[in-house]
Specification:
heterotrimer, A mainly alpha (about 230), B alpha/beta (about 200), C mainly alpha (about 220), A: mainly alpha, 9 helices, about 80% helix, about 0% strand, globular, C: about 220 residues
Amino acid sequence: MPNKSAGLTGRALAVYSKDMKVELRSKYAFNAILMFGITTLAVVSFTLGQSGLSASLLAALFWIIMFFAAMAGLAQVFVREEETGTVLALRLAADPTAVYLGKLFFNLSLMILIAFVITPVFFIFTDAPVDNILLFVLVLILGIVGLCAATTIVAAIISKAGIKGALFAVLSFPILFVLLLLLVSASTRVLEEATLGGIALELQGLVAYSGVMITASLMLFKYVWQE
Amino acid sequence: MYKLSVINLTKRFGFRKVFTDISFELETGRALAVVGPNGSGKTTLLLTLLGGFRPNKGTVTFQEDERVMPAETIRDHTALVAPYLNFYDNLTAEENLIFFSAVSGGRVTGKELTGLLEQVGLAGRGDDPVGSYSSGMKQRLKFAAAILKQPQFLFLDEPTSNLDNDGKKMVFDLINGFKSRSILVLATNEKEEQQLAEQVCRLDR
Amino acid sequence: MWWKIILLSGLAAVIVFSFITPAPQNIIGEASRIFYYHIPMAWIAVLAFALAMIYSIRYLRSKKIIEDIRARSAASLGLLFSFLATVSGSIFARVTWGSFWNWDPRETSIFILLLIYGAYFALRTAVAVEEKRASLAAVYAIFAFLTVPFLVFVVPRVVPSLHPADSVIGADFKFTMGTTVRLIFFASLAFFTVLYLWLFNLTCRVGVLYRKIIEEESL
């Protein structure tokens, strides 16, 4: 008789490490996101030139790049299950909440890895001045959490709808809009040398946004996941 | 003692009826054969029992010692072996088994895995990615996953499909092994397999 | 029947009085009469979204297809009214601020609302299986509705506003609206809401009948 006491954390961890293994062997989502991000960055930087970009423009560019990069690959974690036909085995074996949490953390890890590459390249290409690196990283992490919190369930929706590509961005953008607004506003102020106190309002908004989106996803995910 | 009771189960896809008013009751040690021509809804019935589809009418109840099992625990007590069930192609057989065990709250040692793979005739192939497996080998691996789970309710859809004579014999031995401690639902058109079951549920188109 | 007569005569009265009384705001002048129509449209666009969310929750709870038809009907009229609100607002903006579009917080919010409605229907058309379409659309509607508080509270703080908060609407509108203006405005709000609910009811009934026809054809 197998031990059936392992809780939600263990199960979510199992889903997470499975997805990491699958991704490490194909690297599909990682490459898609990274190349999309780098391409967008290159186009933007090339057309606008380097000097004299205002803080608000730089902040907007940075989050547009992150948004499109996310749209290029964050649905993959669900679409892949549909394409390989493994979704039935997973649905019959795993608790929906464990599936959601595993995939949310997978997307988070993916975006954090991507940000590790894209952010330095962005600063090199645009020559953007940033004094308070820690504060920028804080905004960046909250932004990634927000992006993943809102898009993971949308990714599940589009994979169940049997559609990919453009519709992911179409469904995600209206939900991500307030997040992007908060992120651009916060990043602008950080680039303009604001302190922690100067972006307190944005930080509160970001935390509230992610909290609401993750809570709602936990409640709604089973309706998407089960037929 | 476990019990599976199904009352007036009806499933439609859109406006098309798949099956109507299916009722039966099974206890541990009993097996049901679901028979019927291709497209008669055998697979849909199995998946509806497993909660994969929502019935339009009727109820499916899983009971443990006369108590109804809560919906979220049923998943840990059921297993399905079917041709359309796919494992992860770019994970190895052992990684697949470890994952499906862990995700239903189990834990498995390396020694258990080796023994298990030997039992289903996949000895020495545990480190190969499942993508490199033939369809018969994949079918054997699905049985390995079912054995690992030790389910109280086992659902088999065409259990001997893609298998050679050796594999068929193995499956018959396994089914006989499962029969004493599980409830078995078999969807099949093979005469030999139907004879393993005491009850029959006939579906027509 | 009696309520339809009241509704029609009420709406007729609102239209007449909105034009024969003095303009509600003297600086903007005659153009400010649009406020009697623009605000009710925007209000209904949001009300429709709330209704779509409520019926979506009810669908997920009961899995009855009628709730999905109601959610869809509420949203399809919501799309219409948010479009009307956007257009009337845009005309108003041209007259008062000089350009059709300014990305003022309220313009931004109604635009996002339009996008959400658009995405909702794009999702619906992409899924062929009825039950699946209903569940996915319901989850999306509920999820999208959760951004409304952020649109209301966050957007105005991040985006600079041009909206006439100090003229006829806004926090202090009680003091700036005269009795006649207030009477016409609330009558318009009430009658347009009833009109919306009537249209909603009709759309639901059409939806049910349409489904019956398809069911009969497929048998």
